[in-house]
Amino acid sequence: MELKKIDYFLKIAQTGSLSKAAKALFLTQPTLSRFLENLEQELKVKLFTRSKTSALKLTPAGEDYLKTAKQIANLCKKMDHSLDRYRQSKHRIVFGIKGYYLTPFAAQCAKEVMEAFPEVSVDYFVADSQTQERLLLDGSLQIGLMSYEQKNPALAYVSVSKSPMQLVVSPQNHLADLTAGLTQQQKLHLCSLPNDPPMALMREGTVLRQVCDSYFKTLKYQPNIRTTYMRHGTIVRLLNEQPDLVAFCPENNISKNLTYIPLDPPFYYTEGIVYPLGSQLSKAEKYLICLLKNLPPLRDLDL
């Protein structure tokens, strides 16, 4: 049954008059009169009778039809209201962060954007930089807060932090004594390390590992890799459990349980905000990028 038939019938029953119902429905009275005649013929029952004042009165069949018609109309309204949340759904921004330690910072950024732009919803999730790059390219992610070595030509980059990489060792490692003999201007050349020390490096494929591998290649240095690790936050525990190991760490990743040794020539670990090149950024997205630029300058590895 066409829904307009329900609407027409309900308006006739409500007004008790073809002329009033036609006026409310922006129809002519003859049109509505033909509709009612056709409806009663289709249903094979009489829905209305005329009173002495020409007002329309529901028959018993009409009363039953009215109950069902109201139920159908209410269901239609309910369905329409349920679809409103899709028609009027908020613009959704999804951004990535590269470590759980950034969760408080990300949550605060999301909150500030949604307060400034109530029509926008903001979500974030933790993913490594390689995953974020893939999601940015396939459109699943609008903005990424990530590290990078080489830039993808399909993405735009806003550098937030460029931290010198340093050699890190446990205070129990004999190389820790090297820092005592170095002035602020002096740095250690990797090739001058004695006894080819065993190294702990980030797993292959990560940005931190790529940065280190590029450095080794530049120096033509062959590292003595003993072990690899998955999460950079485990480096403190790893080096203190195996004090003879050496590793590499951005200078802005601090720990009172590690000794940092500056290197010459220097090399750097870059973090930044990345989004698809040519994106038509909304005001909310631009605001989010401004907030993300305030990335905490230091990461405490002891937490």
Structure description:
The protein is of the alpha/beta class and 303 residues long. Helix content is 39%, strand content 24%. The protein has nine helices and 13 strands. The protein has helices at 3-15, 18-25, 29-43, 60-87, 103-116, 129-138, 207-219, 235-241, 283-292, and strands spanning 48-50, 56-58, 91-97, 120-126, 143-148, 155-169, 198-202, 224-229, 246-250, 253-254, 259-262, 268-276, 299-300. Strands 3, 4, 5, 6, 9, 11 and 12 form a seven-stranded mixed β-sheet that branches. It has a two-stranded antiparallel ribbon with strand order 1-2. α2 (18-25) packs across α3 (29-43) and α5 (103-116) packs antiparallel against α9 (283-292). The chain is rod-shaped, with a radius of gyration of 35 Å.
